[in-house]
Design goal:
This protein is of the alpha+beta class and about 300 residues long. The protein folds into 3 domains: about 90 residues, Beta Barrel (conserved putative lor/sdh protein from methanococcus maripaludis s2 fold), CATH 2.40.420; about 80 residues, Beta Barrel (Elongation Factor Tu (Ef-tu), domain 3), CATH 2.40.30.170; about 100 residues. Helices cover about 35% and strands about 30% of the residues. It is built from 5 helices and 15 strands. The strands form 4 sheets. A 6-stranded antiparallel beta barrel has the order 3-4-7-6-5-8. A hairpin with a 3-residue loop joins strand 13 and strand 14. Helix 2 packs antiparallel against helix 3. The longest helix has about 45 residues. It starts with a helix and ends in a 9-residue tail after the last helix. This is Efflux RND transporter periplasmic adaptor subunit. It comes from Methylogaea oryzae.
């Protein structure tokens, strides 16, 4: 169909020259925003036990020195046997308390490793880990990712895509953190932890996730979903062929990234894609196909 430059300007027709991009195929997974309160509670308990250990070590050091002084004085007959026994008892009690503090810390570390894995446990053990701070301030959220049972996480994966269920147009990038030590209740597949910007994500919210596969990246083009129009259940776009000529083109296959589509066939780099006004072009195309009424 044809539309003069003047008509195009009046209709607000806008085009975009497509450029090549490459993308790895993805597979879908399940996710939800994790409650980090248990991890924060763990970090709080850890701080308290570390403080107790510091106090017990200091106390033990003091009682050990006192015992050594008393033992020396007793050897020189300058301290009684009772004083030596009291110093020994004090040192033994302090040593027991220091050992108990160390044992409690070891138990807590084991608990953290069993529940959260080495990476997240390390956040809790760190005096001020930046990732944990961002989670605490709700700048980021912790995401539990569950893969389908037949899938494994491809080696070298660093980024995943996340969106609220049914809201693929608003995806966010998630950073893969570590494998999770426990299987979740979503699937019996592999489980992983990721961190993503908080934005509109809330604790407990179920998410859709997309994980890049190990397959080689494929070449194609990417364009805004607003360029797509549907007719007879199929997606179409308009390309500008000449200054005043447009052609409707079927998109046989696509990867839906929400606000944008990735397409490997149907359109190509260098094509001039109509990104605004496609619906008007469709109306004009089919209006031109309607036979003029016979005035007779």
């Amino acid at each position: 169909m044809r539309l003069s430059p003047e008509q195009q300007r009046a209709a607000g027709i806008a085009v975009q020259v497509l450029t090549e991009t490459r993308q790895r195929p993805e597979f879908s997974a399940y996710a939800r925003v994790a409650d980090i309160q248990p991890l924060l509670n763990l970090a709080t308990r850890l701080r308290a036990l570390q403080a107790e250990r510091t106090v017990s070590r200091t106390t033990l050091g003091a009682s050990q020195k006192a015992l050594e002084r008393t033992a020396k004085l007793h050897k020189e007959d300058a301290a009684s046997a009772r004083s030596l026994q009291q110093a020994q008892a004090q040192q033994a009690g302090d040593a027991a308390r220091a050992a108990a503090a160390e044992q409690q810390l070891a138990i807590l570390r084991t608990e953290a490793l069993q529940q959260w894995g080495a990476t997240l446990a390390g956040w809790a053990f760190s005096p001020s880990h930046p990732t944990l701070e961002r989670l605490l301030l709700r700048q980021d959220v912790l995401v539990e990712l569950a893969l389908p049972p037949e899938r494994t996480m491809p080696a070298g994966t660093e980024q995943i895509r996340l969106a609220r269920q049914g809201d693929k147009r608003h995806t966010v990038e998630g950073r893969l953190v570590s494998a999770a030590p426990r299987t979740g209740d979503i699937t019996q597949g592999e489980t992983w932890f990721a961190v993503a910007p908080a934005d509109a994500l809330r604790t407990g919210m179920r998410l859709d996730a997309w994980v890049p596969t190990e397959a080689d990246a494929v070449a194609g083009v990417e364009f805004p979903v607003e360029a797509v129009l549907w007719r007879s259940g199929k997606p179409w776009v308009y390309l500008q062929i000449d200054d005043d000529r447009f052609e409707r083109r079927l998109i046989p296959a696509y990867t839906d990234h929400g606000a944008r589509w990735f397409v490997g066939t149907g359109v190509a780099p260098g094509d001039r894609l109509v990104i605004n006004g496609a619906q008007l072009l469709l109306s004009e195309e089919f209006r031109g196909q309607i036979p003029a009424e016979d005035d007779d």
